[in-house]
Design goal:
single chain, 334 residues, mainly alpha, 16 helices, globular, EmrE-like, transmembrane helix, EamA family transporter, transmembrane
Length: 334
């Protein structure tokens, strides 16, 4: 992977990490359910008018939109609106990866390798540490809502995988068509028309301007730019090479929340976060690096090198994504 592509991958992690600050700013002005509907409507309208429908089965497109687009951001925005810190949210949302493995094994009968199983156990241990600290700090409900959002993301990952698309960015854009109507209906029922109308007053204030800038960042940078670059990289490199860069997202998110919002993170949360991120990284491996299965491959390396030298590599020849995705299936984290 060339250094320029590594820098692009790191830039996406920065975009997605800062995205949580943008969400926090937008939630200061708009109610959470309506904000989800508003955010995706801004993407859905030009998508319907300008972007061709991806060649996938409709049920997987809808499932992806309901899981990744609707459930993930319903619970994430709700949790952040009632007190989940932006930096910690960027970390806890990484639990989508072990959830994806468990759902894949349960629903799709996918085999769970030893590194994946160990990664799940380590990630659950980290999540438990963070959860116990959150419970002691009387902020457990926002934490649990964020975990529920990660589970929705995992459901979206399963549908994304079943769609088996060769047009990932187009699928992501059309996924955005699903959330606006159900989220608007939920917003009208729970938050009410008055709260929605009231959120459009005071947009000229500092809070309102920051909210609009945050919304624009989420749509243009977090979704369109971030997803576009990530999809471009995933089409050119193995998932196992690109995916680990997504583990920089909580690092950026926590650091930015501390510098900009003054949100300090307790040492218990840092310890749990290190276990969680480590478990996700471990679970992204198809096997342990010291596995004896690598020996036969090494013996065949010269022949493989001659073959690869004679045959150009195309995107379709790249290895399939690892069974424990982190951000490659989501493209827009947020």
């Amino acid at each position: 992977m060339p250094i320029t592509h590594r820098l692009l991958a790191a830039s996406v992690a920065i975009m997605w990490g800062l995205n949580f600050l943008a969400i926090d700013a937008s939630l200061a002005q708009f109610p959470p359910y309506f904000l989800v509907a508003f955010r995706f409507a801004l993407i859905a309208i030009p998508t319907v008018l300008l972007v061709p429908l991806p060649k996938v089965k409709l049920r997987w497109l809808i499932g992806y939109g309901l899981g990744f687009g609707t459930l993930q951001f319903l619970f994430l925005y709700w949790g952040m609106a009632i007190g989940m810190p932006a930096g910690l949210a960027s970390l806890v949302l990484q639990t989508s990866a072990p959830f994806t493995v468990l759902l894949g094994a349960t629903l799709l009968r996918e085999r769970v390798s030893a590194p994946q199983l160990l990664g799940i156990l380590v990630a659950v241990a980290g999540l438990t540490v963070v959860g116990m600290h959150r419970a002691g700090a009387a902020a457990l409900v926002p934490f649990l809502l964020t975990v529920a959002g990660a589970f929705g993301w995992a459901l979206g990952n399963i549908c994304n995988r079943q769609a088996r698309t060769t047009e990932p960015l187009r699928l992501t854009l059309w996924m955005s068509v699903v959330p606006p109507l159900p989220m608007l209906a939920l917003s009208l029922a729970v938050e009410g028309p008055e709260a929605i109308a009231g959120s459009f007053t005071g947009l000229a204030s500092t809070t309102g301007i920051l909210a609009l800038l945050g919304l624009a960042y989420t749509v243009l940078i977090g979704t369109v730019a971030g997803s576009g670059i990530w999809s471009w990289l995933m089409a050119r490199h193995p998932a196992g090479v690109v995916a680990p860069f997504s583990l920089l997202v909580p690092v950026v998110g926590i650091t930015a929340a501390w510098l900009v919002l003054g949100q300090a993170v307790a040492w218990e949360e840092l310890l749990g976060g290190a276990l969680l991120v480590g478990g996700v990284f471990l679970g992204s491996l198809s096997r342990f690096p010291w596995s004896p299965l690598r020996a036969p491959e090494a013996a065949q390396a010269p022949e493989a090198s001659r073959t690869s030298a004679a045959t150009p590599v195309t995107p379709s020849a790249a290895p399939a994504p690892a069974a424990l995705p982190t951000a490659e299936s989501t493209h827009d984290r947020d």
